[in-house]
Design brief:
The complex is a heterodimer of chains A (about 220) and B (about 250). Chain A has about 220 residues and is mostly helical. Helix content of chain A is about 80%, strand content about 0%. The N and C termini of chain A lie far apart (about 55 Å). Chain B is α/β, with parallel strands linked by helices. In chain B, about 35% of the residues lie in helices and about 30% in strands. In chain B, helix 3 (about 105-115) packs parallel to helix 5 (about 150-160). Classes of the chains: A mainly alpha (about 220), B alpha/beta (about 250). The interface of A and B includes residues 124, 129, 213 and 215 of A.
Chain lengths: ~220, ~250
């Protein structure tokens, strides 16, 4: 198999790789905020339960969670395994990444000086007004660098979907590598992830710069 | 007319009693200064008056409306809705400004009147510009807080409080975060407000300023009012041993 054919075949999985990436971000970024707020909830059982869930999601491998979401329903209830693997993949990834984002958001929210809440309270801002107008915009600016870290990790983590044979780029590359006894597909994959992440880093740097109008 | 009336406030943090039976009232146009050592409870008193802290016992009354009423030795607060309307009758200037860093100067001053008081935007912006002009900050309306000196930031925060058209303005050590030069410019602004008969309660460590600008001075220590009265008498001719001791460093 020529290099061009390999690249061509692997590119066919690119759409699926991008689907995992963008759908995971789409769901996990807002879900992380909900988890963060539950994690800081005044009701102790809610807080404790959320903390426990976060610790499981961060403490076990993403691959294991992916297998559990994909095949768990079959072993538990005899339900048929989803035909379209994208669904369990995005569910597992979104939940896993939401746990990481939640802790980043929490750190951001807790780093806000109490004076911001007090200034808003004295001016008559309600809880929601204070959160959405005063706190959240400043938290977003503070969390961009750690969120960038996670987004870069996500690019590379899309390759873990090979564990459930979802036909993304790395899965196809691994199949070619096996059938052709060649290491070349892995090199191609490596170059791809590197370029993808260079792009991610550039975009995130632009966002950081855009938020640089205040300190 | 009484703007503010505080009766027999009590407040403890755990076992520590911070305010012990404090009463004071502020008439319209009056300037009251509160002096005293750190930990005397003066900031806590201001925080109770501005609803940032809940008091354990006592009444808190603005313009005849009860924000909190003492019932069997416990403060019972009014409903959230009533408190919201009471909040609009006072303003607070913080020691460390607490401006919103992500808003321009103009937005810092004009957002709350439009968003909270629902006043028309054009009118609010025009008033905000006028306030900024009075504060000598006309050229700064598009600046962000980090681009301003401490004194300028404090003037913005005074403008932000005044934009809500409060009946009474509280200052919590407004110059304590500023160097002597910048302190002067803030004291001048407060003097100008006093000349316009703005009702104010000022917690301060600036003794000569307190003497010159106020109608009434309160000296607090250990959670109680030790001595109060005419500014000149308190600052230059205190009667109580504790007041004499505290002021000896200033006179």
């Amino acid at each position: 198999m020529t290099l061009t054919t390999m690249i061509q075949k692997m590119s066919e999985g690119l759409g699926n790789t991008l689907s995992i990436f963008f759908l995971t971000l789409l769901f996990s970024l807002p879900l992380g905020m909900i988890v963060a707020l539950l994690r800081m909830c005044k009701v102790k059982p809610v807080r404790a339960a959320t903390t426990a869930v976060i610790s499981i999601l961060r403490g076990t491998p993403l691959m294991l969670q992916l297998l559990a979401v994909t095949y768990g329903p079959f072993y538990l209830f005899g339900a048929s395994v989803a035909r379209n693997k994208l669904i369990p993949v995005v569910i597992a990834y979104s939940i896993n990444y939401a746990a990481y984002f939640a802790e980043i958001y929490r750190a951001g929210i807790e780093s806000m000086p109490v004076g911001q809440y007090e200034a808003a309270a004295v001016l008559g801002y309600g809880r929601a007004e204070t959160f959405f107008r005063i706190i959240l915009p400043q938290v977003i600016k503070r969390v961009v660098p750690p969120v960038t870290n996670e987004v870069i990790t996500l690019v590379k983590d899309t390759s873990i979907a090979f564990a459930v044979a979802y036909q993304e780029m790395f899965t196809i590359g691994k199949q070619i590598a096996n059938s052709q006894s060649s290491f070349t597909p892995f090199l191609i994959a490596g170059v791809f992830y590197f370029v993808f992440n260079a792009l991610v880093a550039w975009i995130m740097a632009r966002i950081e710069k855009k938020l640089d109008y205040y300190r | 007319m009484k703007i503010l009336e505080i009766n027999h406030i009590r407040k403890s943090f755990g076992a520590l009693e911070v305010l012990n039976d404090i009463s004071l009232s502020v008439e319209e146009g009056q300037v009251v200064s509160i002096i005293g050592p750190s930990g005397s409870g003066k900031s806590t008193l201001l925080r109770c008056a501005t609803l940032l802290e809940t008091m354990d016992g006592g009444d808190l009354i603005y313009l005849g409306k009860y924000a909190a009423r003492d019932q069997d030795g416990k403060s019972v607060y009014a409903s959230a809705k009533e408190l919201k309307s009471i909040r609009s009758s006072f303003g607070l200037v913080f020691q460390n400004f607490n401006l919103f860093p992500h808003y321009s100067v103009l937005r810092n001053v004009s957002e709350a009147p439009t968003l909270i008081q629902k006043r028309p935007k054009e009118q609010v912006v025009a008033e905000a510009r006028e306030l900024l002009r009075k504060m000598g900050l006309s050229d700064k309306e598009d600046a962000y807080p980090y681009q301003l000196s401490g004194g300028q930031q404090q003037r913005v925060s005074i403008a932000r409080a005044l934009a809500m058209k409060p009946q009474i303005l509280f200052f919590d050590e407004p110059t304590s975060a500023l160097d002597p030069e910048l302190t002067g410019e803030i004291l001048r602004v407060i003097r100008d407000l006093a000349a316009e008969h703005m009702t104010m309660v000022i917690v301060t460590h600036e003794m000569s300023f307190a003497r010159d600008v106020s109608d009434h001075v309160i000296f607090m220590d250990g959670g109680v009012i030790v001595e109060e009265g005419n500014p000149y008498n308190i600052i230059n001719n205190p009667k109580q041993e504790r007041t004499i001791q505290f002021l000896s460093r200033f006179n």
